Amino acid sequence: MEKLMEILKNLRPEVDFNTEKSLIDGGVLDSFDLVSLIGELNEEFEIEISFDDMEPENFNSAEQIYQMIVRLQSEE
Amino acid sequence: MVCNVLEYLERAEKLYPDKLVFGDESGQLTYRQLGRAARRMGSRLAEQGAYREPVTVLIDKDVNTLAAFMGIVYSGCFYVPVDKTLPIERIRTILSVVNPAYLIVKKEDEQLGRELEKEKLLFLEEMFQEPVNWLGYPKPEQKEAVKVPERQWEEAKESGNCCYKEKEENLPLLTKIRERHLDTNPLYMIFTSGSTGVPKGVLISHRSVIDMAEQFTNVFQFSSEEVFANQAPFDFDVSVKDIYLTIRNGASMYIVPKSMFVMPKKLAGFFNEKKITTIIWAASALGVAASFRILEKEAPRYLKKIMFSGEVLPMKVLHYWQKHVRDSIYVNLYGPTEITCNCTYYIVDREFSQDQVLPIGKAFPNTEILLFNEENRLAEPGEQGEICVRGSSLALGYYKNKEETEKAFCQNPLHEDYLDMIYRTGDMGYINDRGELVFAARKDHQIKHMGHRIELLEVEASVNAVEEVEKCCCMYDDILGKILLFYQAEKEMEKEIISQLHNKLPKYMCPNVFYRLDKIPENNHGKIDRQRLKQKYMENNK
Fold this sequence. Notes:
The complex is a heterodimer of chains A (76) and B (542). By secondary structure, chain A is mainly alpha-helical. Chain A has one domain: Non-ribosomal Peptide Synthetase Peptidyl Carrier Protein, Chain A, CATH 1.10.1200. Chain A has three helices and no strands. Chain A has helices at 2-11, 31-45, 62-75. In chain A, helix 1 (2-11) packs antiparallel against helix 2 (31-45). Chain B is built from 19 helices and 25 strands. Chain B has a nine-stranded mixed beta sheet. In chain B, strands 16, 17, 18, 19 and 20 form a five-stranded antiparallel beta sheet that branches. A four-stranded parallel beta sheet of chain B has the order 4-3-5-6, with helices on both faces. In chain B, strand 11, helix 14 and strand 12 form a beta-alpha-beta unit. In chain B, helix 2 crosses helix 3 (63-74), helix 2 (31-47) crosses helix 9 (171-180) and helix 10 packs across helix 11 (238-249). The longest helix of chain B has 17 residues, at 31-47. Chain B is globular. Mean pLDDT of chain B is 90; it is low at 130-141 and 160-167. At the A-B interface, helix 2 of A face helix 14 and helix 18 of B.
């Protein structure tokens, strides 16, 4: 989780990822943020976020992103 | 000769009254509906007496916003699209430059609208409503229902306008306005980053847009069969091509919702569902589609023309699209807002390897490109020169900004025989051995970041406004795609800087990486030594 928070903070320093719960639905992250985020997550956590994982409910909060990472790691 | 973009609209309205012109997620307009809505709105604006004045619209990606643009054009005014998600200070700065005759917002943005403008605020929805209940005031018993401000109500009563309008379109008035029209009148104004810290409003005439629409249509053979998928927001001039190529040709245009670029899963199906034939997108948007690999699931079957601009398209993105959409032409378009969308094009006609760069090709018809070297002489083949543009496509300059206008729009240095304006883009280019124009670099501190054109000096101006920041310097790491900020201060100020910038600048202009320094390197003249700073940065990040 720490690693994830660091990635998120570097991505958008001004967003408070501890409290923000609608990163996608609230329009906080845009497509460019997501492109770089997904690239970094794939690399850092050695996972492959696929087309089918691209749902708002996987990305709306840091917690949800974390859960998705854990799920993908366990599927390996 | 077409002198007014409304002639395009009216021609299409006659030929294809019931055809869809614009569609979005929740609504659509036929040519007849668009024409009527625009004339109703134009009538109301014109009855107020505004003429050849700017009208600001807080925009959404929807069909009503487009109808409002056309309505403003009918009134003889010009439209100024502004993104309502910008920080409010930024919108205020823009409004203070524009000083619009009216600010048009949606009912849902009433609060924001009222914060920005008290007197001259109009609501989009009310302008299309029939019968008129806006300013040609309705029957007295409807006074409550339409909630007009007391002062306006009194005025309306005094002026005798306090009656029900018989006709919804004031055709005599609109005709009168049309008779006065010149094709050199402004059509719209789009704001772009300014190096002095204040954004610049680029003013574009009917003539320039008509020129663009005619040249694009001829070069790329557009017809009424075309179906455009609009990606760019309406405060970006990339969208000008979608809008006017659609109405020029009696074609159709679907607005791709913003959310589809954030979670692009649905984008794949969208192409085929709407039978999209042409996309004219920011290069970065094609990149998003490639990063998410959306084309594997469902390849677009109707897509025949793929055009991109705004940034250099990475070769791997081009290859990805080419692999999945084989029957399409690919066109690299180049040009800044000041010359109305694009001045050169290159139709991809050969294979490129990963390390090659796409040329920007050659000038559109009725446009000339001149490359001037530092001595203001024409560059030799292979030699770099500043890309300068001649033709009807040149903007009317920067609104209320003579100084910046004269810097960029000037007499052709080759002669002084007659008025012959060129626009200096600040981009450097050269002619390769195939005779194609190639973009090389920027002359100044302007960058392209996430599809946006940004003056680093404007970012610096905003950082310097933060108290306790003694000095700062912005640079762009184009490999990481990040804006770097070096600042001189006694303590770490990252948080303060971020929160202050956030109130003033669009988020894409905020630096991504922060470095505090005790002392920013300076040269002998006491100026920031950008070269040395850059070297240091490169050494530390090897």
